[in-house]
Sequence to fold (204 residues):
Amino acid sequence: MSLILHEYAPSGNCYKIRLTAALTGTAIERRGYDILAGETRTAAFLANVNANGRIPVLQHGERFLPESNAACFYLADGTALIPADPFDRADMLRWMFWEQYNHEPNIATVRFWMGWVGEANLDDLQRALLPGKRAAGEAALKLMDEHLAGRDWFVGDAPSLADICLYAYTHVAEEGGFALAPFPAVRAWIARVEGLDDYIAITA
Fold:
């Protein structure tokens, strides 16, 4: 059965699935939606793709898997991107959970607000939340930099889904106004991810 990715291409959450597919040699068909035009909120999308009205969604036959990190795990299961050691595998999941709870809600949200909504168009609530999200995003980058100091990958001695999922929004963090210059270990790690065989860019 074919795999279909329902996506918005500039999204880091969608990109991490495409990157996982590329690194595992998995062919996927891409179906794009304009989230700014509300295409994931239509009755047809809600009824047939994701009742939560969000993308990405990975479709395998008649089954639909929302949530980007779950989709990445599905694609990578049984490959070298999933550590064989039980502790390392759990530690990989720890970083993937952290990415969605501490990293993505801040770095990705500010990137979207700055790059797609526009700072001049932010509503009062977004303006009030912006300083806190910037501070939390910088704290996330600092924690990553400290963890990566003296090591190449987030878990063990090889790249895993922890690296792929964290890379997706980290490498474009400057689009949201987050400076990467103060974080040399993060920048070196970004270069290592981009040097992986079969790597694809977010614009691919």
Summary: The mean pLDDT is 97. The two ends are 24 Å apart (CA to CA).
